[in-house]
Design a protein that fits this description.
The chain has 369 residues and is an alpha/beta fold. The protein has 2 domains: 11-176, Rossmann fold (3-Layer(aba) Sandwich); 181-365, Dehydroquinate synthase-like - alpha domain (Dehydroquinate synthase-like, alpha domain, Up-down Bundle), CATH 1.20.1090.10. It is 50% helix and 10% strand. The chain has helices at 22-26, 39-52, 68-81, 94-104, 111-119, 183-201, 208-228, 235-255, 259-271, 275-278, 283-290, 295-305, 309-322, 336-348, 359-365, and strands at 11-14, 31-34, 57-59, 87-92, 131-135, 147-152, 157-162, 170-173. It has a 6-stranded parallel sheet. Strands 6-7 form a two-stranded antiparallel ribbon. Helix 6 runs parallel beside helix 8 (235-255) and helix 12 crosses helix 13. Bound molecules: nicotinamide-adenine-dinucleotide and fe (ii) ion. Residues 36, 38, 40, 64-65, 92-96, 98, 136-137, 139-142, 145, 147-149, 177-178, 180-181, 185, 189, 192, 275-276 line the site of nicotinamide-adenine-dinucleotide (NAD). Fe (ii) ion is lined by residues 140, 192, 195-196, 261, 275, 279.
């Protein structure tokens, strides 16, 4: 077996009431609070502020998928108020946590980050402020990863801001916060985590620790999500899904994602398909293409789906169908004449190159229906 390492420096606090731990972690430091401009979050922020004190700044204009334009404004607001000992608190889903990671990288406005994203140059100009991530979706796992997905809608490009210092110092995960997530968002965010776990298994960077996290995460999402969608207030099921998403995050924090994510980015950019849906509809066909390609991957997939992996593919299809998710790319607007090009680009993309399967098999299995 080849040598492997596993590393994750994030200090994790998990459980109902975890929110109460934040004041102790902030420990009187000046802070920037990042969240959404919605009633539920204003109330949550107010209650947090009553325990941690008035923040230096509140950035609350976060919308799904952090984009260059909004980030430019956000970075300016941050630059106007920051001090050397500022800590950033991200109270929200992946878009809030990823925005916090951009803020943490600059106290001089967005330009140094933009330059680094576009050219890979001048990382020395970037800052490294600490982040306390408090996820309210379950989820992206961004609370335990060292990268942020950043979107340039104008140029139709997706970037990954990846730096070791972007690991939040702390992840505070209170499953009760996800109880207000509507049914559809509950499904899409949990499917994102299912994709993270499966993508970390059919991955060149997989190792026994990441795979153990991934098997647990995928099994839990598959068993608990169909129950949760009919019982959204059930705190036991919310806790199982939050924990599964955290474990999926830990898995792919060391492997990164693979083909399903690589394929998702143009579909989100061009057709506006929400991330969790865009990165999960292709999972059954990608799984079908990878069976028999790598014995460790097969073994791990069997731990999730049982001994017959062809039946496993059918069960995964049924699971998605039961949640109302189509596994056909054409359902998301993809046209026949662009599909082959999308697949070829996805296989050649940075994340696509992590995929352990063969291109021929992918092109054979993922035909446009
Ligand atoms: N950095 C990473 O490791 C990583 C991994 C996966 C995805 N991502 C990125 O994360 C983003 C998606 O994040 P997301 O799926 O968490 O959603 P999001 O942060 O984009 O939020 C989506 C919507 O959910 C609502 N919402 C969030 N929490 C809620 C709650 N508790 N109750 C009610 N409504 C709530 C928000 O108001 C928002 O309108 C994408 O940009 C994706 O690319 C990053
Ligand atoms: Fe994802």
């Amino acid at each position: 077996m080849k040598m492997w390492t596993f590393e994750n420096p994030v200090n994790i606090t998990f459980g109902i009431g975890a929110l109460n731990a934040i004041a102790g972690i902030v420990a009187g430091r000046p802070c920037c609070l990042v969240t959404y401009d919605e009633k539920y979050f204003s109330e949550l922020a107010a209650s947090l502020i009553s325990s941690i004190g008035e923040p230096q700044s509140v950035i609350n204009n976060i919308t799904p998928n952090p984009d260059f334009e909004t980030l430019r404004d956000n970075c300016q607001t941050f630059a106007n108020s920051v001090s050397a000992d500022t800590v950033i608190i991200a109270l929200g889903g992946g878009s809030v946590i990823d925005t916090a990671k951009v803020l943490a990288s600059t106290d001089k406005g967005f330009e140094p980050v933009q330059q680094f994203l576009e050219t890979g140059e001048n990382e020395t100009r970037l800052a490294s402020y600490p982040i306390i991530a408090v996820p309210t979706t379950a989820g992206t796992g961004s609370e335990v990863t060292r990268w942020a997905t950043v979107w340039d809608g104008k140029s139709q490009k997706k970037y990954s801001l990846a730096r070791p210092s972007l690991y939040p110092t702390h992840a505070v995960i209170d499953p009760a916060l996800t109880r207000s997530l509507p049914r559809q968002m509950t499904i899409y965010t949990a499917l994102d985590a299912l994709s993270h776990s499966l993508e970390s298994l059919w991955n060149r960077n997989a190792n026994p620790v990441s795979s153990n996290y991934a098997v647990y995460a995928a099994s839990q999402v598959i068993s608990a999500l169909p129950l949760l969608v009919d019982d959204l207030e059930n705190i036991g099921l919310r806790t199982r899904i939050s924990k599964a998403c955290l474990f999926a995050g830990l898995a792919f924090s060391n492997t990164k994602t693979a083909l399903a994510h690589s394929l998702s980015y143009p579909i989100t950019l061009k057709y506006g398909i929400i991330h969790g849906l865009a990165c999960s509809f292709s999972l059954p066909k990608i799984m079908a293409s990878v069976i028999g390609q790598d014995s460790a991957c097969d073994q791990n997939l069997k731990r999730i789906f049982g001994p017959d992996l062809d039946t496993g593919v059918n069960n995964l299809e049924q699971f998605l169908a039961g949640l109302g998710v189509s596994t056909r790319a054409s359902s998301y607007g993809v046209q026949k004449d662009e599909w082959q090009g999308m697949l070829t680009n996805a296989l050649a993309g940075e994340r696509g190159l992590n995929f352990i399967g063969s291109s021929e098999k992918v092109l054979e299995m993922l035909i446009l229906e």
